[in-house]
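Quick check before the chapter quiz. The format below is the same one you will see on the exam, so make sure you can read both the input and the output lines.
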Amino acid sequence: MLALLGAAGDLSGTSSDLKNLKVEMPNLEDYANAQPIDFRINGNANQRRLKPSDIPKLAKDAIIPIRLEDAVNRAFEFFAEFENKRAAPILTITPPIVESVDAGSPAEQAGLRSGDLILFVNSVKIESVMGSYLAFNEKPSAEVPLKVLRNKKETLSFVLKNASRTQINGANSGIKFLIPAEVIYLSEPETKRWAEQYRREMLPTIPVDWRTDAANNLMQNAKRLNLIAKGVVDPSGATPAKVQAKDVLSWQHKKVLENIDTYFSQRRKIENANSAYLSSMGDAVVGFICSLVIFAIAIALFWYQRRMLGKRR
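Here is the expected output.
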């Protein structure tokens, strides 16, 4: 009987463990602990290692789960905002010198070359790479007039045209500027393409039951990363943050998959324990029933012997 009660208690405990088992989603504090990230904090000219306490918290009303598609879109919008804030101080002081033009692009077809200095876009005077991006993206058009300085002496005019008559912007003009390798500027079309790449390549590797949770977690981490760029990192620094959104994305996706594997591993252990406890309960029940049968036989024999003794007297 005690064995039966013990097995029942163990089974109740593991059933509770199984009910409470869940996939833990990663957070930026874990990323900050695992990565050597140097930051310049506002009001401090010196760099120091990023601490988990530097990462802004989200208010409770800012972490309400939303639909999968909306969560993915918002996540990459936050990533783009972070990269653009990080890049803005550098792009604002970088002259708009063409490093290369994409093959078959409007820039190549118009005749732009490596080394050309952009002077005007849509009649707007351009003094930096950031100014060029803004001019392209604020007034996208199927035809974009440009003026450039070639070989530091010859001013030339071009018109960028798209054969499909679709609007030309900073992302599809085909112009690649001479900028530091770590600088990333994401236009709206590029942000949407990045989000679609995530949906196509990463999201399908996550089991369906956890895709919405993973997308919401990605959105929350991206928002917090964006808040770092806004409120913690010194925007006047030449390299305000030695971290890129793509690195956070890769880390988050890897951790989600690892945590799902851990969940299934723990679940198998609990289910195996449940099976063992059920087997023990079965053995205990069989033993208890056998004990009852033996006890009943003993009582019957005792009663039979007493009756036989009574008849002899």
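If your answer matched, good. The CA atoms of residues 34 and 192 lie 29 Å apart.
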